[in-house]
Amino acid sequence: MAEETNPDAEGMDADLADEWAAAMSEAGDAGGDSGDLDDEWAAAMSEQEVKPVQLDQLGAAPSVSGLGSDMELIMDIPVTLSMELGNTEIAIRNLLQLTQGSVVELDRFAGEPLDVLVNGTLIAHGEVVVVNDKYGIRLTDVVSPSERIKRLK
């Protein structure tokens, strides 16, 4: 079976990554009208220790059912990545009464980290960031592979 690659998609991914990197560096350089608030955020961000993820660590994972460590077989499989702000249970009676402007209370407090889910499985926690008027999420805690396996059972 011949492997097909889409050079346009790879170029678009690289362009998008470059755009985010430029926006993040501009956000760090931007002073301006926000005054002390920007300074507080800049100080807080500079205190964080950012470590790049080593993708080689993924290849070192034990093989499942003798499939080997060839990660290339699964690298192009699409998954659904979602962020969960919170949730609640609501009776259908109350659900039907919701209108524009209604407020639904969630089970989380303001400032609590969001859950990052891949295909419905919790993989990390993070916080919302805004770059060039688009939402993003900065991962603050990644769930260990052993903990993910425990949650599946």
From TrEMBL:
> Topology relative to the membrane, per the entry?
Peripheral membrane protein
Q: Where is this region: Disordered?
A: 1-38
Compartments, record wording: Cell membrane; Bacterial flagellum basal body
**Which keywords does the record carry?**
Bacterial flagellum, Cell membrane, Cell projection, Chemotaxis, Cilium, Flagellar rotation, Flagellum, Membrane
Which SUPFAM superfamilies does this entry report, sorted A to Z? Answer: Surface presentation of antigens (SPOA)
Q: GO cellular component annotations, sorted alphabetically?
A: bacterial-type flagellum basal body; plasma membrane
Domain Flagellar motor switch protein FliN-like C-terminal: residue ranges:
73-143
Some GO term, biological process aspect, for this entry: which one? bacterial-type flagellum-dependent cell motility
Name the InterPro entries for this protein: FliN, FliN-like_C, FliN/MopA/SpaO, FliN_T3SS_HrcQb, SpoA-like_sf
Query: Which intervals carry biased composition (Acidic residues)?
Result: 1-18
Function field = FliN is one of three proteins (FliG, FliN, FliM) that form the rotor-mounted switch complex (C ring), located at the base of the basal body. This complex interacts with the CheY and CheZ chemotaxis proteins, in addition to contacting components of the motor that determine the direction of flagellar rotation.
Q: What family is this?
A: Belongs to the FliN/MopA/SpaO family.
Q: What is this protein called?
A: Flagellar motor switch protein FliN
